[in-house]
Amino acid sequence: MNIAVIGLGLIGASFCKAIKARTEHTCYGMDTNGQSVEKALADGSIDFAITNENIHLLSVMDITIIGLHPRTAIQFVLDNLQHFSKGSIVTDTCGIKTSIVDALEDKLQSRGVHFVGAHPMAGREFSGYDYSLATLFDGASFIVTPTQNTDSKALETVTELARRIGFGKIATATPEKHDRIIAYTSQLAHVVSNAYVKSETLLERSGFSAGSFLDLTRVARLNEHMWTELFMDNKAPLLQEIDTILANIKAYRDALANGDEATLKNLLRVGRELKEESMKHDVNKRK
Amino acid sequence: MNIAVIGLGLIGASFCKAIKARTEHTCYGMDTNGQSVEKALADGSIDFAITNENIHLLSVMDITIIGLHPRTAIQFVLDNLQHFSKGSIVTDTCGIKTSIVDALEDKLQSRGVHFVGAHPMAGREFSGYDYSLATLFDGASFIVTPTQNTDSKALETVTELARRIGFGKIATATPEKHDRIIAYTSQLAHVVSNAYVKSETLLERSGFSAGSFLDLTRVARLNEHMWTELFMDNKAPLLQEIDTILANIKAYRDALANGDEATLKNLLRVGRELKEESMKHDVNKRK
Question: Which residue on chain B is closest to A236 by alpha carbon?
């Protein structure tokens, strides 16, 4: 197949590298950053570059993977609707799905182009081409969010490609369910982690950092531009998760403030039991 | 030396195993759980068992390490004051220090017994003898909390033992500073992690769990009996950290609720920068 990857950041470039390392497909890449394109050509991560001048090359693609942040992704597809061929597939990599699917599915479908909303559940604490890896997706979950309008063969083509490049599990959800769950498993984690480092005690802690601190704050190092978009475009589910954890943390706080040892112990016990229950369902266990 | 370890749980038994694996010292162990004592004798983690019947053996110890939870630790030492020899050392392993030092230092010192408050910064998500490891402390921080009354030679003896059994760094703080920092780096992490799992979304998340979720919730699996004691006996510093993170999380919440994108992005940027700054000071880096 001919596959185009638009955006050669961490995720997009990792797609290119994995496609070239593990399939026979031809990979085309595009990025506003000329250096990333040059590196990708030089190290063989892409076979050809797409530029504004030869953007009509999109018409020979079987799949176009949009590796851009949500708003730029939408803009790119809408700006280039005329270039996608009938029967070809457009898919994305955004961490939210409802706003993406709502913005793109009808527009593409009315031109006979198949759209498959997707979210590769992988990342690193670094962004950009230089951190991309052919192995980034190994064992990770690839979430697809088909609607009743999604072409089943297009969906199969995209998930088959995902398996080929290393994903360990294909998960399926409606865009709405995806966004609700991701608000909890990923977005809330980034909010809490980013808030955690905002204590005056932070810079006093040399030699005192247990693994718990490092775990809680690992994702505090985030790309604020991307995450602001993701949060803003998933406002209702994320607000609900934030309000839930605020209320839950406050329960421990009040038990502690009141010296209510029995309540505090019970709160901790319930949390431990929920964690143990949830561990039975983990597909992505860490040692 | 003759070293006694009182309490053969995860921490105490790991002390025994590391002492036997890496030093020539003689190790005596005591536990209310007879099975743990039998296992420790059988696998050579201790040379001799101390029981209520031969508790006078404490009088031949150079060092007695109290590997019990805070309140039991205090009770044990006070109940056995008459058995510790003049010039010998008693040290503990509790995760809080002010209440321990306040309860024990004067009592021991008035009998000529040296006390060194200590906190080995290591653990696992499991407790009990069966999870103890000779390598548990490798590279970890060993925090000591000497006061103006602490005997400098006793302090040196304890820290030298810590180095011999694997600790990578010796950190020193007053008991009060220790408790203030630990409220942030460890106790708050356990509160937040334990609260994090209390969302109705928890059990819907199969296939959706990114590393961020697993990181945020790792320490949710805690021993509620021990942590209730630790929290209750460190109430003021922990309350302050909880109030700080509640206020900080609420700032993101309000920016999101108000659709205030600039404020949200700025909050995330400040968090990222603080995390990056704090990473420069990490002694305990993870890849």
Answer: B257
Closest CA to A29 of A60, A65, A70: A65
How many Å apart are CA B18 and CA B25, to the nearest integer?
Answer: 11
Residue predicted with more confidence, A23 or A126: A23
User: Residue B112: which region, alpha, beta or left (left: phi > 0; alpha: psi -120 to 50)?
Assistant: left
Helix axes A224-232, B235-257, angle to 10 degrees: 70
| Nearest C-alpha in A relative to B222 | A272
CA distances B103 to B70, B180, B195, Å, are 10, 18, 32
Residue type (1 letter), B100: I
**Nearest residue to A120 (alpha-carbon basis) of A98, A103, A146, A95:** A95
- Predicted confidence at residue B236, as pLDDT, reads 97
**Tokens 């730029």 label which residue?**
A72
pLDDT band at A282 (very low <50, low <70, confident <90, very high): low
Neighbours of B243 (CB within 10 A): 14
Partner residue facing A184 (CB), from B188, B199, B257: B199
Q: Which of B98, B228, B70 is nearest to A252 (CA)?
A: B228
| Residue contact B210–A121, C-beta within 8 A | yes
Q: Residue B251: is it exposed, middle or buried by C-beta count within 10 angstroms (0-12/13-18/19+)?
A: middle
Q: Which residue of A227, A239, A265 is in closest CB contact with B257?
A: A239
Domains of chain A: 2-173 (3.40.50.720), 178-279 (1.10.3660.10)
B218 contacts in A (CB within 8 Å)? 211-212, 215, 286
Interface mutation target, options B137, B142, B182, B194, chain A, most CBs of A under 10 Å: B194
B-contacting residues of A 191-210, CB under 8 Å?
191-210
Are A134 and A22 in contact by the 8 Å Cβ rule? The answer is yes
Taking only residues 263 to 282 of chain A, the set having a beta carbon closer than 8 angstroms to any beta carbon of chain B reads: 264-272, 274-279, 281-282
Nearest by CB: B275 against A217, A227, A245: A217
Tell me, rounded to whole angstroms, the distance of Cα B214 from its chain centroid: 22
pLDDT digits (tens, 9 = 90+) for A119-138: 999 877 778 999 999 999 99
Length of chain B, please? 287
Q: Does A138 touch chain B (CB under 8 A)?
A: no
pLDDT for position B282:
67
Q: What is the distance between the terminal CA atoms of chain A, rounded to a whole angstrom?
A: 38
CB atoms closer than 10 angstroms to residue A255: 21
